[in-house]
From TrEMBL, chains A, B:
The lineage of its organism: Bacteria, Pseudomonadati, Pseudomonadota, Alphaproteobacteria, Hyphomicrobiales. This is Alkyldihydroxyacetonephosphate synthase. Residues 93-273 form the FAD-binding PCMH-type domain. Its cofactor is FAD. Belongs to the FAD-binding oxidoreductase/transferase type 4 family.
């Protein structure tokens, strides 16, 4: 039986943080912001949330794959951002989908799209529902909405053990990919925080960023070819290791966020499961000393798998909030060769920038799961579960991410940090916190991932949350960054994306969409307006 | 004073192969194909070629930047493929451009495009004119044509020494980039055979492949942002090290081959000039033993700068044509660290596949210029000069390139080789030769670069040449490959490209073009029809 997802928050209905996780976290937050206790809104039960009646009648031929029951519609109404949790706790879901389709194959998708066309309904492609940018949220303006969940299209169809690639369906969740590859020597290793509850098709549609901090950062780099079902028909690109024949068709769909069609399958690159690992945690006196080291490592052509620079106070337990220290979680991995030469040189570079390495025992198979690296890893994996508990307590806890070339990073970091801090203070009347990490790094710049926190007024929780997040995200674009490095645009980022992307490109994209989706039914409001 | 290009062939008017190069080459060809002597057509003089009178009157305001003289129009009529040389030797140039514009800035480009619009002329963007796919050749169907040469927009405008990037104008030639970077620690190192007479804008428009055999293979990987002048206006993408905000605007122009607009400048990634090098030549008993080694090296994550697998008889002097031997030109380079560990492991892998290494002295600064690597390098650089001399003698000597995933490579190689050999025999009535090399290699497959030769009937030289090249190129697409890995589509590859790319993508691209180029004036006939 399919494991039931938690309709109002991250994860599955049968799992939650333990009291042993909640209590020290509450204490830490209370101390950080000078709070004595929390008013905890109870988690919603599904029958506490009233939904508008469905505005669609499911044709008899589709009833076996389309559902309109309360819980199904509720579960597909929101993504998993902080503002989604807050609204669920407010029992406020004004725009649920009218129906949710669960196609089992491309023919089913075509039938559902035909129905949407005839019924005048909008179609929202749905993978794991982990969007944090309102990417799968029905817009208020839509008269009728059918959400199309790909969850039954969840198979690894073919593994090419010579070229190290696999043909995989779009609706498969991250862990199922690795499960289905278990009998092979291969792994995809595209892990991100949403890995457990997000899909290959979703990753491709949103240009997700994964485990690798260098080289294979975005899903873009994994894709050999795609199949897409559009309202104008199905399309398949040719499977190739490389091509220079015109603008890449794959790149038109990478990042298309469901506005052009539904990604049903892809050939993706795999690699052999790593058997050699070298990991280290390196402490720097502050974030910018660490940033200089990271820049030098990426420009040296060493290509670590992991190269995440974190503020110690954000990432590690027991570090006082006043600490300026930074920690670099550095790892090389290979299925082919020992990594001493790589790690030795990377640590020399760290040393040149004042980094003190805490190298783990090279014989320790689980080095990446212990020490600072392990502590960070645990926090990273568990973090999404805290969102509902923060929302329930009026705790502001969210993130935004961007990218910037190195020469502008210090000034940009200073400005964005100041804006975030000032905005929290202005909106909430209290001091908040803001920290930064680098999640992915390139020779010419990092992805800056900001985490911010504070205490909201629960009576105006949603309004305050949105004002802070909107102000900070807008600032990243105003100061030259991208509105998103790997969280997608969705409906939330639209105003900032509209400033970032050239208007002539928007016109070209709109024209391309009109060709593939003549009635503008696919994921309306995302990326462009018709 | 600007050095005059040779109007009818590769290179500059004041340079040619020496008798010391021509004689042994002639002897080798004569021996290979059993020929006793060659009938040599003399190189054309410009006044031997009659051109249709220009069909345009240049407005007085543009006369300082637009030329209609005979030599200028002649020089911009053809690219540098074998069929271009043959036609020049035939003194046959039926469709020259009516005028050639030499804008000095974007405002000039806008003025020229406005003139084209008013005069009902087509506009063909022109970089170095090194196209081998009829990418810059005016189509017979065009009523009036203005070729727009970017050669005056040839500056490195800005160097960012922190992020290792530069803002560079589109019309700059390869060597000028490195010249203008000479006072910096940086290099672009995007070398290809056409490097001396091709431009940054041309590389971007055609998705060229360069020096690096792995990772930074295509120009795509160098581009941070672009400026493009389209008939609908100018557009600039945001300079970023990475982004996930919608489909990449840069990727729409990468490979657009002038049909959407003119690339006037780009921010591109640089790297420090390499100070550490490790090179080796590795001999394999045959091409497929070498291919297995190359596959293992790319899948091992070692990322050599050079990893070119060649048939020894094609690449090296003194190897009998009956030899099946292959040679791998392998090199690592770095500005940061010694490369022993990398090379040691790569050579171990070669050894596992029967490769016998001929490692050069690691202290030899010029290792990559001596031995098999050096012999290959010289042939590679000089090769384009042979094209006119082959054409003058009725020698068939040309190439085509494609890419394929590894698991299909042996069968694909066998089929394409057989088709090429059979086609030469059928068309010319004589045995020809065909060899293959890998120029760029990916974990999931190589770029296969085929070279073929034979003896043509000079009375039907062009017809025979076209039939052979067309048949072989068509076969690459029929058997699952790409019509081009890095030579672009142009007008020559159109029939094969039309089969390769999904029809729905063509419709989307046409729609995008209509938005940026409403009258369809930009490089008509390339990639798509209106």
């Amino acid at each position: 039986m399919r494991r039931q997802k938690k309709f109002y928050a991250w994860g599955y209905a049968d799992e939650d943080l333990s009291a042993d996780e909640i209590k020290p976290w509450e204490a830490e937050i209370a101390q950080r912001y000078g709070i004595s206790s929390f008013d905890v809104t109870p988690a919603p039960k599904s029958d506490e949330i009233a939904l508008r009646a469905t505005r669609l009648t499911v044709p008899s031929g589709l009833q076996s794959i389309v559902r309109t029951d309360h819980l199904t519609r509720l579960e597909h109404s929101y993504g998993k951002a902080g503002f989604d949790a807050i609204r669920m706790l407010m029992r406020s879901v004004p725009n649920p989908p009218d129906a949710v389709a669960f196609p089992e194959n491309e023919q089913d998708i075509v039938r559902v799209l035909d129905w949407c066309d005839q019924a005048g309904a909008m179609a929202i492609p749905y993978g794991g529902g982990s969007s944090v940018v309102k990417g799968i949220e029905p817009p208020a303006s839509a008269e009728k909405v059918v959400t199309i969940s790909l969850r039954h299209m969840d198979k690894v169809l073919e593994v090419d053990s010579v070229s190290h690639a696999a043909r995989i369906q779009g609706g498969i969740y991250g862990p199922a990919i690795e499960d289905q590859l278990r009998q092979t020597p291969f792994t995809m290793r595209h892990y991100m925080q949403a890995y457990r509850c997000s899909t290959l098709g979703g990753w491709i549609a949103t240009r997700s960023g994964g485990h690798y901090a260098t080289l294979y950062t975005h899903i873009d780099d994994f894709v050999e070819s795609l199949r897409v079902v559009t309202p104008s028909g199905a399309l398949e690109t040719r499977r190739l290791p490389g091509s220079g024949a015109g603008p890449s068709p794959d790149r038109m769909f990478l990042g298309s966020e469901g506005i052009l069609g539904i990604i049903t399958e892809a050939w993706v690159r795999l690699r052999k499961k790593p058997t050699f690992r070298a990991s280290a945690s390196v402490r720097f006196k502050n974030f910018f000393a660490g940033a200089d080291a990271v820049r030098a490592i990426t420009q040296a052509g060493l290509y670590p798998a992991n190269c995440r620079l974190l503020e110690a106070r954000e990432a590690l337990p027991g570090i006082p909030w006043s600490s300026e220290e930074a920690v670099l979680v550095l790892a090389f991995e290979s299925a082919d060769h020992p990594l001493e030469a790589w790690m030795k040189r990377a640590l020399e570079i760290c040393g040149d920038h004042g980094g003190a390495a805490d190298p783990t025992d090279p014989d320790d198979e689980n080095a990446h799961r212990s020490g600072a690296a392990g502590a960070w890893r645990n926090r990273f994996i568990r973090a999404p579960h805290y969102s509902e508990h923060a929302a329930a307590r009026g705790i502001l806890s969210s993130t935004f991410e961007t990218a910037m070339t190195w020469e502008r990073v210090p000034e940009f970091h200073r400005k964005i940090t100041a804006i975030t801090r000032d905005t929290i203070k202005r909106v909430t009347g209290r001091d908040g916190t803001v920290t930064c990490r680098f999640t992915h790094v390139y020779p010419d710049g990092p992805c800056l991932y900001f985490t911010f926190g504070g205490i909201l007024d629960k009576r105006r929780q949603l309004e305050q949350f949105m004002e802070i997040l909107t102000t900070c995200t807008a600032a990243t674009v105003e100061h030259g960054g991208t509105t998103t490095h790997h969280h997608a645009v969705g409906r939330f980022h639209r105003p900032f994306y509209d400033k970032q992307r050239p208007e002539l490109f928007a016109r070209a994209l709109r024209a391309a969409k009109r060709e593939l989706d003549p009635k503008g039914m696919m994921n309306p409001g995302v990326l462009i307006d018709p």
